[in-house]
Write a structure and sequence with these properties.
This protein is an alpha+beta fold. Helices cover 36% and strands 24% of the residues. α1 (36-53) runs parallel beside α2, α3 (141-149) crosses α4 (155-166) and α8 packs across α9. The model has no long low-confidence stretch (mean pLDDT 97).
Length: 307
């Protein structure tokens, strides 16, 4: 065992040879968009993200599907699975099977299996003071998804959010590996502040975030101001009270967005200062829009200062 649940990392990593380790994870959730094909794409990208977040290369996937039996004739389940298969194919990954159950509420995701060289694992306990914090996708998908459920999301905002969630984290992970980065995680259900807290706690460090530099989805601020905030985001914000402090003019809406429960969010990378220029070049070469949002600092493990 190289990585287990002890540090709250993104996937299990198990050594099978001196130069090979398996990366194994699973993830599934209820629909966050109405279109079943898009739901499948997002579910697959989200599951594969945990392999990329460990620095791994996916090998294959297995479907996890819950669906109401009485709706099987509608063709919706086929569209979900087709979306997942197409996204897996984009990642170069075969879907070798899976498991389905009769469930009144649909759910979809994948078991994803990959591999990584033991010396190239991107772990969440290797951030060090001075590291630059880099985020590769904008925040706000939880708020957008809630607005969709409430019938209040503009189509242009939804389209942008869907494409963000369906985007693979492969290129960002490859750039981090090429730059020699060794600390990363992905931003999903616990929001930016939650996942950063886990990374910092595992690494025994603290961090400062420049809130003005954090990328946000178009329309997310307006939707949050209108009250379309998921319960998970509000819980994340409440949980953050013990380890996140704010200075200056950080609005209540921005605090929510920093804690927003993401689906298939971006990678959060801690890059040593001597590798920042190389990481920037590698990201640019792959057309990854990476935002430099803060730095790791010495201090109490898990503390975050947002300015």
């Amino acid at each position: 065992m190289l990585v287990d649940i002890a540090t709250g990392d993104d996937a299990a990593v198990y050594l099978i040879a001196p130069d090979r380790a398996l990366v194994v994870t699973l993830d599934f959730f209820t629909p966050i968009v109405d279109d079943p094909y898009d739901f499948g794409r997002i579910g697959a990208a989200n599951a594969l993200s945990d392999v990329y977040a460990m620095g791994g290369t996916p090998l294959f996937a297995l479907n996890l599907l819950s669906f109401p039996r009485e709706l099987l004739s509608e063709g919706l389940a086929e569209e979900i699975v087709r979306g997942g298969a197409d996204k897996a194919a984009e990642a170069g990954v075969p879907v070798l099977g899976g498991h389905s159950i009769d469930d009144p509420e649909p759910k979809y995701g994948m078991v994803a299996v990959g591999e990584v060289h033991p010396d190239e694992v991107l772990a969440n306990d290797r951030a060090r003071p001075g590291d630059l914090l880099v985020l590769t996708k904008p925040l706000g998908t939880g708020i957008v998804a809630t607005a969709v459920k409430e019938g209040r999301c503009p189509s242009s905002v939804l389209s942008a959010a869907v494409e963000t969630m369906a985007q693979l984290n492969r290129d960002a992970a490859e750039a981090a590996q090429a730059a020699g980065v060794r600390a990363a995680t992905d931003v999903t259900g616990y929001g930016l502040t939650g996942h950063l807290h886990t990374l910092l706690r595992a690494s025994g460090a603290s961090a400062r975030i420049e809130s003005a530099r954090v990328p946000l989805l178009e329309g997310a601020v307006q939707l949050a101001e209108a009250g379309h905030v998921p319960g998970g985001t509000r819980r994340n914000l409440a949980d953050a009270a013990g380890h996140v402090a704010y200075e200056g003019d950080v609005s209540a809406v921005l605090k929510l967005l920093l804690a927003d429960a993401q689906t298939s969010g971006g990678l959060l990378i801690a890059c040593p200062q001597d590798r920042v220029a190389l990481l920037r070049r590698e990201m640019a070469a792959r057309n990854v829009r990476a935002a430099e949002i803060g730095r790791v600092e010495a201090g109490s493990g898990g503390r975050i200062l947002v300015g």
